[in-house]
Amino acid sequence: MEEIVAKAIGKIKELEKSTPCNKHIATGDVRKLSSQLFRQIEDKSTENVFALCEELLSEHAWALGVIAFDFAYRMKNLYNESTYGIFYHWLKDYVRGWGDCDDFCTHAFGELLRQKKSLFVNIITWTDDNDFWIRRASAVILIPAILKNDYEGIHPFAISDRLMSDGHDLVLKGYGWMLKALSQVNPGCVEEYLIKNCRKMPRTAYRYALEKFDKETRNRLMRM
Which pLDDT value is given to residue 72? Predict the structure, then answer.
């Protein structure tokens, strides 16, 4: 076991012992620990750091996953064409719920897509995946590029169209969140989309999508 991974496991155990009974370790504390540990990594090549991430993820522990995804995001200036395969493997093999999905996709994986928008053709195929968190990821991964208004070549409505009537509540909430983010940079386009689809879009997704509109617009859309 690599020294940094062993340190991470030990420090997490210390945090668990100091956390009151029936309470969860604070995510902020895990991120602070991650920052400290990252500074201690001597070899910060992508090969070494991603190998550390893999080892952390293979422990299948929530807090260690937070550290792994944080390490991966800190490498964002060194992403290349091979990074997609590594990240997709992590998403498919180690993520098992919406929390890990959102952390990974709104940071490291979302940043990769923002940098390399040609990957969008891969993302579209996720909407047909059997795993709900992959389908949710197909929408959530767009959020970083959208919020930075840097999504030319990425087509959010192509994703929401394909997820429109998905059978999983967390997928509906995921693409609703993505549309909500889009409404912050292109409200007119999202309003038009919601009006067009108000009768077939499940209310779970619909309500999420209109949360950032002004009160008057939100109330008008809710009456549809």
Answer: 98
Q: What is the DSSP string of 37-86?
A: HHHT-S---HHHHHHHHHHHHTT--HHHHHHHHHHHHHTGGG--TTHHHH
- What's the DSSP call for residue 135? H
- Residue type (1 letter), 131: D
The number of beta carbons lying within 10 Å of the beta carbon of residue 73 is 18
Residue (of 172, 182, 179) closest to 205 by Cα position? 172
What is the predicted pLDDT for the residue at 169?
Answer: 96
For 133-168, b/e burial (b = at least 16 CB within 10 A) is: bbbbbbbbbbbbbbbeeebeebebbebbebbeebee
Q: Which two tokens stand for residue 170?
A: 């967390």
Note whether 214 and 222 are within 8 A (CB): no
Separation of alpha carbons 181 and 80, rounded Å: 26
Contact yes or no for 213/221 (Cβ under 8 A): yes
Nearest to 91 by CA among 117, 221, 119: 119
13 Cβ neighbours under 8 A, 6+ residues apart: none
Give the whole-angstrom CA distance, residue 67 versus residue 187. Answer: 35
Q: Walk along the chain (224 residues) in steps of 10 and give the mean pLDDT of each run.
A: 93 88 86 97 97 97 96 98 97 92 97 98 97 96 98 97 97 98 97 95 96 93 88
| Predicted local distance difference test score (pLDDT) of residue 121 | 97
